[in-house]
Structure formats: C-alpha cells, structure tokens
C-alpha cells in the first residue's frame, strides 16, 4: 500500500513556491538599481538619515513624523553601507524580494501551491515592484509587513496560539511604524476575524470543497471506510500510513465533504469515522456544535483584539503628531475625485496596460475562488475605499500610499493563472483514448489502480500544462511592462516626462566653479529641493550657500532659512551660481521677491545651462 508523508511534513508549501519568486524579484529589482538618480522624496530620505539621531528626532516633531521610524532605520543602514543611490535603495530591494516570497506563500496557503507560485512570479515582473523596490522610501517595507501580517493572521485563525498572535502583533506594529495609512488593511483583517469567530475558519481561511491536489496538505482529510468500526478490538489489522500518525489539526479546519471519487466521505481527523477511539457519548449534533463553537469564536476575536492593544499604544502618539503635520506635509495633494479611481490600476502598477491586465486577472481569480476570495478581495478593496473616502475630505489620496495592496491582487490573479491552459483539450477521434482527467491524486484507496497514461501528465490540462500556461501569461505581463521597466530606471519622477536632472546641474557647477563662488536657489520652500539635490551630488565641493542663515538641520525641517536682506548677504560676492527649478531662458527673472531684485540689480548673466527640470546660470558682477 502506498505510504503518505505525515501531515506535519506535507503541510508546508515546498520552498520552490516562495524561493523562486523571491530570487526573481531580487534579480529584477537589483538590475539597474543605481541608474536613476535620487528624486525629491529620496533626497528627503537622505537629508533626514544623515543627521545625528537627536537632530533627526527633533525634525520629526515638525515634519515627517509618520516617516520618522523609517528614517531611523536608514540612518543606521547608511552608517554601515554609505549613501550612494544603490546603498540607499538596497533595503527596499531586499524587502520587495521577501514580499514576493511571502505573496507566494500566502497564495499557496489560501488557494494552492500552483496559484501561490504564479502569484509570486507575477508580482516579481510588475513595474510597480521594481519602482518601489528601487526607491529609498518605506513603501517596499510596508508591503512586506502587510503580507506578513496577513499570512500570520491566517495561521493564527487556523491554529490560535499566543505565539502566533504575538507574531501578528509585531508585524502589524512594524507596518504601522513604517506606513500609517497601511493600517487600513486592518479593516480587511477585521472582516475575516469576525466571520471566522462567527462561522469558523473553514468558512473563511480554510474553505472546503477543493480537490486534493489543490488543498494545503495540512488540511487534507484522510479517507476511511465508513463501515469499519471505530473500536480497536473490532478492526482488522491494516497497514499504517502517514494519516494515522499525522498530527491532528482542529476539527473546524476539516469539515466533512463528499469525495468526487466513489462517494466516500472525507471526515475530519477527530470524528468517529476517522478511526479514533472517540467515546460513544461524543456523537455530534448540530445544536451541540453551535454551542461548543461559540467559545472558540470568542477566543479568536479576543486574541485578535488583544494583539492590537500594543499596536494602538505604540502608534497612537505617532498618529497624533502626524495628524498635526498633515497641513504642511500634504499641502500639495488634491482632493480625491471619481476619475482617480479609474486611473488607479495603471498608476499603481506604473503601467496602464499592465494595470488593466492585472485587474482583469484578479477579477477572474475572484470569480473562480468564490468565498475563498474574501480575504484577498477585502485586502485590496477596503484600503482603497477607505483612503479614497478620506481623500475626498482631507488631502490624503496619493497612489503610492496603496502599494501594499498589490500582492493581494496578485494572489487573486494567481488563482486565475493556475486554471489557465496552454491549448484547448484535444477532441476525441475514433481510435483515440480519452485523455485522463487533470490533477488526479493517488490515495491509499486508489493505490492499486492502473496509473494514468504518461502523455496525460504532459497534456494541456495536467498540472505541468497549467503551470506552463500560467508562466506564459506571467511572461506576457512582463513583456507588456518592459517599456515602463526601462523608463523607471531612467528617472523616478512622476510623470516620467518631467524628470529633474540634479546630477547634470551639479556636474556643470563642478566643472566651472572657482574659489570664492557662491550659490543661490529658487524656490527654496517647495518640494523639488534643488538645494538638497546639489548638496547630494556635490558634497564638500558645493559652493557656499551665501543666503542661508539656518540650514535644514538647524531648522529641524527639510528647508533652510534665508536672510531677510539678500542684497546685504550678497555683498562682496563676485560670482553667483543660480539654480532654479524648471527650464528658464532668463533665470534671474524667475526669482521672486527681494532675492530676485538683489540678483537683477547687482549681477549680469554670463551663461545659462538648461537641464531637464532645472536650470543653472552663472551671474557675475
């Protein structure tokens, strides 16, 4: 008789399911990771991370409190690895690789190994994965912890223990510290927890009715002959196999269903038909199950709420400080409008074609899964709805804030890809055998049956045929996003048609400067940060910032403070490098206020160098 591995061994998705997507994501994100120069948000990260910790903490009291924990992380990282573009972005690349592996594992747990593998591979080739895996901002790390928290929640709902709830609490706390808006994911978690508490995990995270090849092995029930006695003395000796010695899992995870092969009931390991020595008094009835199920449901709900207590205590002070900074932090954000929802898939995927493609696959996967789609669908839709609703009232609707929802869309898409076929099944012709049905799995009862023809295992509906079809669709998604993959490695600005060439401007000044030169920026209070761009690329060779009276570190912000009398501060300076944002044919004319008056009155333009998104001019007395 054919032996089966114990359930404790079979319950874990094989490493190929998550290792391959993780390695592929790492390879993709590391490709050209240092080509695009840091854009304005990354310059803000660099400016904050290179400050001493006391100055960094002081800065978070005035600006960027919500990003403060990430800045502290990057501060420690840059002390070890430096502040080159590659070094600044490497933590994000590693985070995206882990997120891809966790996405594959989540898909394997919720849907099946094939769907999990394809979900992880699809996530790896999306332009959005490279975009934020090559950016020194917290979105990749937030994506990692969003998937990790959801995976740990599923495990805690299936087998609640204090260790699993503690791991979930740590993951959610890390998610909150890295990205407060990602806490909208808890709305999806709440829906799943409440349904699990009311109806058991079999109704939400461990659904019945899957084929044996698709079910996670830990929840595959072992079939027994219903006419055999449950008492040891009445049973004839039979050969033991893995199901007898397998660790039992909660009965709620193994609802009795009917097998598609011969009508033999699949029974949960704790039932009398499973062959256990259950006493006769343990006959089940619906009323008793309902009464006994209410207590585990309450324990699940209590465990989840207790896991959130340290998160609330930790995050509340940070959220209050960040709320007070919202006006200054998000003054550039427009109110959310309905057309923004229509543009969300393309903007989120960093490609209109790929965004629509993934959305269609996710919709197909949700339709295929039915109620099994509840968790990933809620994890995609509820954060979007909540952030959009809030964005109509306060400035909050920013597409990249929702990057953490992408893995859950990939899980749904993976379910659709797992059902794909290379070609239609061949039609029957005279003299041709009927192809074997797909995905038949050997069982102890079928150990002696004749094996299916070898060619059926290679057919379009076989597991190998379906995985090949799914991979072909993933490759197609990668090819559709290839132009955007190339473009985002040239510039991280959005839209990509409006890059800012800080490095080019810095190179002009570096090649032409003389001792005693000064530098002036305009505007100094915006979000393009021309001063930070020149400081990053020029370092100690940067000309003297003649107008500044308090730099960013001294002002505990991202902006320097200039003197009130620019003419007086410019006295004695013969050559001034003027750096203005945008392409300006007459740079001094673009400088407003007293600073512009002093420059126009005291200097003439020697030469102008326009660069994409920025202009450099040399002014002389």
Shape: elongated
- Termini Cα gap: 97 Å
**What's the β-strand tally?**
9
The poorly predicted ranges are: 1-11, 207-292, 431-457
Based on helices, strands and strand pairing, what is the structural class? Answer: alpha/beta
Number of H/I helices: 26
The largest sheet, given as strand count, sense and whether it forms a barrel, is:
5 strands, mixed
Main sheet strand line-up:
4-3-7-9-8
Estimate percent helicity: 40-55%
Beta-strand proportion: 5-15%
Radius of gyration: 30 Å
**Overall average pLDDT:** 82
Summarize the entry for a quick read:
The chain has helices spanning 7-10, 15-30, 40-49, 53-60, 68-81, 85-110, 113-125, 127-133, 139-158, 162-178, 185-199, 242-245, 286-324, 326-329, 338-349, 352-369, 374-391, 406-418, 454-457, 463-480, 482-488, 502-512, 530-538, 552-555, 566-569, 593-602, and strands spanning 257-258, 265-266, 518-522, 544-545, 548-550, 561-562, 575-581, 604-611, 614-620. The chain is α/β, with parallel strands linked by helices and 621 residues long. A hairpin with a 2-residue loop joins strand 8 and strand 9.
